[in-house]
Amino acid sequence: MHLDRRIRFQLVIYVVITLVAGVVMAVGYIRLPAMFGVGRYSVTVELPRAAGLYPGGNVTYRGTEVGRIDQVKLTDSGVAAVLSLRSDIAIPSDLEAQVHSVSSVGEQYMALLPRNGTSASLKNGDVIPVTRTSVPPDINGVVETLNTGLQAIPRENLRTVVDESYTAVGGLGPELARLVQGSTRVVTDAHKNIDAITALVDQSAPVLDSQIDTADAISAWSAHLATVTDELRAHDDDMADVLAKGGPAIDEARQLVERLQPTVPILMANLVSLGDVAVAYQPNIEQILVLLPQGTAELQGASLSSHDTKQDYKGTHVDFNLNINLPPPCTTGFLPAQQRRPAALQDYPDPPAGDVYCRIPQDSNLVAVRGARNTPCATVPGKRAPTVKMCESDEQYVPLNEGTNWKGDPNATLSGQGIPQLPPASPPPAPAMPPPLAVAEYDPATGAYVGPDGKVYTQANLAQNEQHQTWQSMLVPPN
After folding, report:
1. Which of 46, 206, 257, 470 lies deepest, with the highest CB count within 10 Å?
2. Helix/strand/coil percent split, the chain, to 5
3. What is the mean pLDDT of each run of 10 residues along the chain (479 residues)?
4. How far apart are alpha carbons 423 and 339 in whole angstroms?
5. CA distance linking residue 236 with residue 217, whole number of Å
């Protein structure tokens, strides 16, 4: 039989297509490699009963098909299901095997649910014990129980339930359809994000454990909250008054703050600086607050020394002893005697350049024990220095002498520290004349007076008929 070239070419194409289709059918649909165990491994699941499983049923892991049920066989203690799983998917060995049904009357399948995603993977020959498996209840028992329950319900009542159910959902077909569609979308999105949801479930254990560990604290907090709510309920009228009158009160406070502008912002800005200082000197403030009650008590005790007695004198007893140079004055670190100003002068010249304080040893208990040299550094605990600059630096205090050289030149034995000195042969600065006082006579009847510019001004609060001024009136603007 003679075949031309075109027919032979068509036959070749037909053979190639047939071979390709056969290979696809054998590998993709019939899965011949899997039938011979290629790319598969076997795991045995121990079950209390078959629960409707059959060979060829699906095996899923996190909702994805990963194998088939190879066989279901009886054992001495129940049933053993041999699973043929794909070796390209790593399945944790710490898992639970559950038998589920596609629907109430549908086919059964095996679902593998991991308990620990970081455990070792399953391998060929592993056995999942019956303690980590579960099967659904027998459908026959469920139907029989449901039938018994329905027979126990009075027929008239059952008819009423059906009628009322129809009344409740009758005509809500579109709404129910949207509910079902929304639920389907939720399930679909959950399936797409199954890894994230599984990780969330796996990692929720520490959070739940923390709730268990703090159960006592949560119970105490709930009890305290119940106490607060009981008090609020008992004072319901008072709370209602606060809510009713709180708004107007807040509005009045707002208007007061607006009237005090710009004084209040400046005050707040100054309080910020004051707050920084208070933070730096917090230990000092705490020490004052600790000692203040004791000091007040001692002063009160001194003032009550003659209380409930027959003495004529009542009050504090003070004993003055005149001690001359006991202890001696500290002159070390101050200006020499020839540069000191007489105490009778009333001017206020600039202070000398340099720090003037008693520069004797800090541990000297002779004079000026509480002098500037022993001032505690607020920001450097344990350090004492006369100036803030020395406190904030690495410089240590160095005395000029032992504190006993108080006659003649007090700084006879210098230790290198600068001593405030006036320039040689320079006379003391002349005292500045104080500015003249500005005085104006006013009419006490009207409060009018003539200013320096010759114009007449009126100060209303100087008039005789003006009421007594209080601190509250200073917060209210004129008129």
Report:
1. 46
2. 40, 15, 45
3. 75 85 70 62 89 87 87 88 88 88 76 84 89 83 80 79 82 84 88 83 82 87 90 88 88 82 78 86 87 87 72 66 74 75 81 79 83 87 89 88 58 49 52 57 76 75 61 56
4. 10
5. 28
Q: What's phi and psi for 97, nearest 5 deg?
A: -110, 120
Tell me the two tokens of residue 5. 């070239």
C-alpha closest to that of 475 among 250, 256, 151: 256
- Asked if 366 and 341 touch (Cβ cutoff 8 Å), the reply is no
| Residue owning tokens 């649909």 | 29
Q: ∠ at Cα 72 (68, 75), nearest 5°?
A: 145
As given in the structure block, the two tokens for residue 157 are 């009542």
Q: Among 354, 357, 350, which Cα is nearest to 428's?
A: 350
The total number of residues shown for the chain amounts to 479
Please tell me the distance from the alpha carbon of residue 104 to that of residue 136, in angstroms, as a whole number.
11
pTM of the model: 0.32
Bridge partners of 127?
44
